[in-house]
């Protein structure tokens, strides 16, 4: 059973928590939670530009660019000076960029800087955002992927390759520093009006291209459940990797029917050629390397998080979709959504 950690081991007045990714919706919600947390003395918000949530009385904005060569030194100095108790790393892209070099530097190099700084400052605890996309969408995937399954990613997809590489770095760090509590939360697909991603973008279209002959099962995670998992991992110690996913799955065809979307089946070979051309000339926001995620199974099992973390999502996949629809991104025209 995990031990509850009410006070900092370094300072009896409360913990000091450093957060990256506070400019994104999930990071913003987490920082706002910390500002009201009685056991938190100080919040260090690390970003290039000051996010709106950094104005709280306990919050200190730290302008550090994770892609810069000097970032590692600056971070180590910051962690030592403020005696950081927990580093929460949420600065990851939810949607692929055309500028893959910058994306790689932000996610892979940026994480390397953070891990090196944490090691130098002897930061006792790290919590990092991961993704179930790292498992890859493949025809030989099991019905539900577990934390013990390999992170295989998908071919020629820089976004997913970076996520896999980051977890490898994290594993190496954990092995070198066994006394550090290092947690990775592999989030399922978050479906929210304020969270970007290729699935929410796809579902926002009135006509949705799909792959002819394929109807994969999908699972969606509610933002409040994702936030609750982060809060739980920060408040108590749960080293290792955990799938953070909702209960239940839905076929893509059912998702589109509930949302009143027009489904347009396209042969894979056609979409790959045309879509690749459009992506190369920046006429499309979704690369063809992500097509496997609407072609094959990539749903994950959340049993480990339930048993060890005590994490039970409040929203099922169906309930998350229903709320997403009702909040306006989709226009329901078929049947009763509550059934």
**Poorly predicted sequence stretches spanning 5 or more consecutive residues:** 3-8, 333-339
For the largest beta sheet, what order do the strands appear in spatially?
Answer: 3-2-1-4-5-6-11
How far apart are the termini?
Answer: 38 Å
Task: Report the sheet with the most strands, covering strand number, pairing sense and barrel closure.
Answer: 7 strands, parallel
What share of the residues lie within helices?
25-40%
Q: Note the quaternary state here.
A: single chain
Number of strands: 13
How would you sum up the global shape? globular
Task: State the gist of this model.
The chain has 339 residues and is α/β, with parallel strands linked by helices. It has helices at 25-35, 71-82, 100-121, 158-176, 198-203, 223-235, 252-259, 268-280, 303-309, 317-326, and strands at residues 15-20, 40-47, 59-63, 86-89, 125-131, 181-187, 189-190, 207-211, 217-218, 220-221, 240-244, 250-251, 262-266.
Describe the fold and architecture.
This protein is of the alpha/beta class and 339 residues long. The chain has a domain at 15-191 and 222-245 and 301-315: NAD(P)-binding Rossmann-like Domain (Rossmann fold, 3-Layer(aba) Sandwich). It has helices spanning 25-35, 71-82, 100-121, 158-176, 198-203, 223-235, 252-259, 268-280, 303-309, 317-326; strands at 15-20, 40-47, 59-63, 86-89, 125-131, 181-187, 189-190, 207-211, 217-218, 220-221, 240-244, 250-251, 262-266. Strands 3-2-1-4-5-6-11 form a seven-stranded parallel β-sheet, sandwiched between helices. It has a two-stranded parallel ribbon with strand order 7-10. The chain has a two-stranded parallel ribbon with strand order 8-13. Strand 1 (15-20), helix 1 (25-35) and strand 2 form a beta-alpha-beta unit. The chain is globular, with a radius of gyration of 20 Å. 45% of the residues are buried. The model is unreliable at 3-8 and 333-339 (pLDDT under 50).
């Amino acid at each position: 059973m995990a031990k509850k950690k009410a006070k900092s081991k370094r300072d009896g007045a409360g913990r000091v928590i450093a957060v990256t990714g506070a400019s994104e919706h999930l990071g913003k919600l987490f920082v706002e939670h910390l500002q009201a947390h009685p056991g938190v003395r100080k919040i260090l918000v690390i970003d290039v530009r000051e996010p709106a949530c950094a104005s709280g009385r306990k919050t200190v904005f730290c302008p550090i660019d994770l892609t810069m060569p000097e970032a590692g030194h600056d971070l180590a100095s910051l962690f030592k000076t403020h005696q950081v108790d927990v580093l929460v790393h949420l600065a990851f892209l939810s949607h692929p960029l055309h500028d893959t070099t910058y994306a790689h530097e932000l996610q892979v190099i940026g994480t390397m800087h953070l891990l090196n700084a944490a090691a130098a400052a002897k930061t006792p605890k790290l919590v990092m955002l991961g993704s179930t996309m790292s498992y890859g969408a493949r025809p030989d995937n099991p019905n539900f992927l577990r934390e013990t399954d390999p992170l295989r990613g998908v071919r020629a997809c820089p976004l997913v390759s970076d996520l896999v590489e980051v977890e490898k770095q994290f594993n190496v760090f954990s092995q070198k520093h066994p006394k550090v509590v290092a947690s990775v939360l592999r989030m399922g697909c978050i479906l929210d009006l304020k969270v970007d991603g290729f699935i929410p973008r796809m579902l926002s279209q009135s006509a949705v291209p799909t792959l002819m002959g394929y109807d994969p099962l999908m699972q969606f995670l509610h933002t409040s459940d994702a936030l609750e998992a982060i809060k739980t991992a920060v408040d108590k110690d749960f080293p290792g990797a955990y799938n953070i996913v909702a209960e239940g799955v839905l076929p893509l065809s059912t998702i589109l029917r509930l949302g009143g979307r027009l489904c347009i089946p396209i042969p894979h070979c056609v979409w790959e050629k045309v879509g690749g051309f459009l992506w190369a000339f920046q006429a499309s926001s979704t690369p063809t390397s992500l097509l496997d995620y609407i072609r094959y199974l990539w749903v994950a099992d959340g049993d480990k998080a339930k048993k060890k973390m005590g994490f039970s999502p409040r929203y099922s996949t169906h309930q998350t979709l229903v709320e997403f629809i009702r909040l306006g991104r989709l226009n329901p025209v078929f049947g009763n959504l509550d059934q």
